[in-house]
């Protein structure tokens, strides 16, 4: 019998090195593929969760905006209704003192109204009642070109733009034209700080 030939280490070492490289190559390829799939899946989940949260937030903001708009509309409608009661045409231009009492009642009932003015059909200011200034009675001031006087139509309320009085608080003018023989316009200056919380 021939003795067994010794195994040469020179022949097996390159195979082991090649197998080790091949294993590492496939391992890292599979690892990279699995990580990539997991990252893509996580990214897609995060994207859809973000879109869902964004949609829910937009829906919530819309509902809050609608609720705030409804309350602001009620606020303005209440003032418009109270101004309509105070500017009833039955008193005419002769009942200045009675009209003044009605305007004072309005100031007491609606804290947001700071000034009320009555203008006759020729654009002359008949009466002005204010929380911030002295009351004025008599056709002394010409307001024929006043946007509130021009904008108020029979049966249609005029709402002026928002402006800042002394650059501190927002105001808006509301004007109503009364019917009847003595056509006149009642203008209320409304302080909007009472709805700041709603707007905020």
3D architecture notes:
By secondary structure, this protein is α+β, with helices and mostly antiparallel strands. The protein has one domain (10-200): PAS domain (Beta-Lactamase, 2-Layer Sandwich), CATH 3.30.450.20. It has four helices and seven strands. Strands 1, 2, 3, 4, 5, 6 and 7 form a seven-stranded antiparallel sheet that branches. Helix 1 packs antiparallel against helix 2. It is rod-shaped, with a radius of gyration of 40 Å. The relative contact order is 0.11.
Features:
50% helix, alpha+beta, 18% strand, Beta-Lactamase, 200 residues, 7-stranded antiparallel beta sheet
Overall strand count:
7
Sheet of most strands: 7 strands, antiparallel
Into which percentage range does the β-strand content fall?
Answer: 15-25%
* Distance from first to last alpha carbon: 104 Å
Roughly what is the average pLDDT, rounded to an integer?
Answer: 81
H-E order:
HHEEEHEEEEH
Detail the poorly predicted runs. none
Q: Could you say which overall geometry the principal axes of the C-alpha atoms support?
A: rod-shaped
CATH topological fold name = Beta-Lactamase
CATH top level assignment: Alpha Beta
Number of helices: 4
Cα radius of gyration in angstroms: 40 Å
Q: Can you tell me the CATH architecture?
A: 2-Layer Sandwich
- Share of residues in helices: 40-55%
Helix and strand content put the structural class at alpha+beta
Give the structure's gist in a few sentences.
The chain has 200 residues and is α+β, with helices and mostly antiparallel strands. 50% of the residues lie in helices and 18% in strands.
């Amino acid at each position: 019998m021939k003795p067994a030939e010794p195994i040469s280490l020179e022949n097996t070492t390159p195979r082991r090195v090649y197998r080790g490289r091949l294993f590492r190559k496939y391992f890292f390829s599979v690892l990279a593929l699995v990580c990539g799939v997991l990252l893509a899946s996580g990214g897609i989940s995060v994207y859809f969760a973000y879109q869902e949260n964004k949609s829910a937030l937009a829906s919530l903001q819309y509902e809050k905006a609608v609720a705030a708009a409804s309350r602001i509309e009620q606020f303005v409608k209440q003032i418009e209704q109270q101004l309509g009661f105070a500017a009833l045409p039955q008193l005419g231009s002769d009942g200045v003192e009675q009209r003044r009492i009605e305007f004072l009642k309005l100031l007491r009932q609606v804290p947001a109204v700071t000034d009320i003015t009555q203008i006759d059909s020729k654009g002359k200011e008949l009466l002005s009642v204010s929380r911030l200034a002295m009351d004025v009675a008599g056709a002394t001031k010409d307001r024929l070109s006043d946007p509130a006087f021009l904008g108020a139509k029979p049966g249609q309320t005029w709402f002026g733009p928002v402006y800042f009085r002394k650059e501190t608080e927002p105001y808006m003018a509301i004007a109503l034209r009364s019917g009847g023989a003595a056509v006149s316009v009642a203008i209320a200056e409304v302080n909007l700080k009472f709805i700041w919380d709603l707007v905020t």
